[in-house]
Amino acid sequence: MSDDPDPGLPSVAPAAWLIRKLKSTAQISARDCADIENLSFTVRTFGGRTSIVHEGDVPKQCCLVMDGWAYRCRSLANGQRQIFAFYVPGDIPDIESLHLHVMDQGLVAIAQTTVAFVAHSDMRALIERNTSLAMALWRDTLIDATRCRERVISLGRRQAVGRMAHLFCEMYIRLRTVGVADDFRYVLPLTQAELADALGLSSVHANRSLQELRKLGFVTLHRRELIIHDWDGLETVAEFDPAYLHIV
Amino acid sequence: MSDDPDPGLPSVAPAAWLIRKLKSTAQISARDCADIENLSFTVRTFGGRTSIVHEGDVPKQCCLVMDGWAYRCRSLANGQRQIFAFYVPGDIPDIESLHLHVMDQGLVAIAQTTVAFVAHSDMRALIERNTSLAMALWRDTLIDATRCRERVISLGRRQAVGRMAHLFCEMYIRLRTVGVADDFRYVLPLTQAELADALGLSSVHANRSLQELRKLGFVTLHRRELIIHDWDGLETVAEFDPAYLHIV
DNA sequence: CGAGGTTTTGACTCCACTCAATAGACGTGG
DNA sequence: CCACGTCTATTGAGTGGAGTCAAAACCTCG
Q1: pLDDT tens sequence across B186-201
Q2: Domain boundaries in chain B?
Q3: Chains A, B: CB contacts under 8 A, how many?
Q4: Strand, coil or helix: what is B175?
Q5: What is the pLDDT of residue A248?
Q6: Which nucleotides of D are covered by protein (CB under 7 A)?
Q7: The nucleotide closest to A208 (CA, C1' atoms)
Q8: CB of A204 under 7 A from strand D?
Q9: Architecture of A158-245 per CATH?
Q10: What value does the mean pLDDT take over residues B59-67?
Q11: pTM assigned to the model
């Protein structure tokens, strides 16, 4: 489940990640920032494809991604998997565990991923004391839900190429917002099989859809780096409109 | 957009619906109930297929379903539609508008539907005064999100018959929980085209999948009444596990 | 009884899946 | 530095689930 303790701490502290993230979607006061900075975090790094929280766990803490990516997923009886969402620095993937005690899905680290844990008790004390921060966190979970709905549209009404393009667009905007991507390129630490599990495709078809996007000249993906050559083209095939991300 | 004012008020008051609903998923104190009962509601009835809130609106109130069903949906450029979720008595479909100001999707009444509106200002005052109620409402939005994720699994990894069976199971449990269904039957006020838009299918294929469920002897659907003849069978083809509904 | 919506059926097409084999990337250890 | 095993990516061939188009049957209600 776990890995080695943190080696060399990343340059940005846990609190700073969370503050940066919340500022991108809501108004955060100086008092809110101070309260976040007073939280005590436990930093840990997970190796590739290790589980941070298992399906069925009853966690006593929630985690803040600082470096790398994580995803939530569930496996079905026939061995198929569905990835619900990806989480990047600044995100708190399992904040809902504050309110829903048993995890109905797992949380997995992709590649090398550093997260900071906060005890539920600390978090609860914080949101009882500071209503405006509680509202900001609530808002954040609602935005997570809008992303989930966007995924529903993708799976329900877009075909493979559009789905993939949409994911590429969303992740670029989100990563850029927290300062982890720029210049239309970013590290996409996923295998094609994982891409397929997120998009509701077979890995063979994920491969072919990716080739289609390459052939169109929209993206290249090589050695885990995605480069977007034609943002407008990508946005068009994806029918991507960033409004649902509610970035201020 | 609207319709006639309420004719004969339903037997259960708006506050009672909300209390019943929240009690089914969280612990609610006597004070919480009193606070809900002190809210002022404006009841209105919408005719079939009329819009309660439009995509792009900036609502100043949120609405509580009292009778009938509503759904949220969005239309795509090519004319296709995706229905994200259905809402039944006790649900507050647009509570997120408290935090996310512009609606990125529409809310539509199916058949005759009665809803009660509460002003955002009243709601905000309430959740600032009563933290435990705020937490219960937050929790409710998180459960809405788990249902959305379950929809993602359906669209991504189940085929048509399983998707439909899953929806039938979920709606039965939800309706029974608030006392609107019993004895393995309920009013399903949807056309097959709407069913298709919710399940990410064409209406022709929705029809064929429904026939398949009939042929298996699991359900009948006639004159908007769904009867489940074989719950276990339905649950099995759906791979349905009600845990995600977080009903206590 | 007729009009308009909804459900059903048939025929054909196509997107995406499965199975299977090959090629490439990467890390490890001899 | 190369051999080897293990992932991961790519390709091909054949299949099948779901879509499209269009017509017919069926309700329902004024």
Answers
A1: 999 999 999 999 999 9
A2: 14-142, 158-245
A3: 106
A4: helix
A5: 85
A6: 7-13, 17-22, 27-28
A7: D10
A8: yes
A9: Orthogonal Bundle (1.10)
A10: 97
A11: 0.94
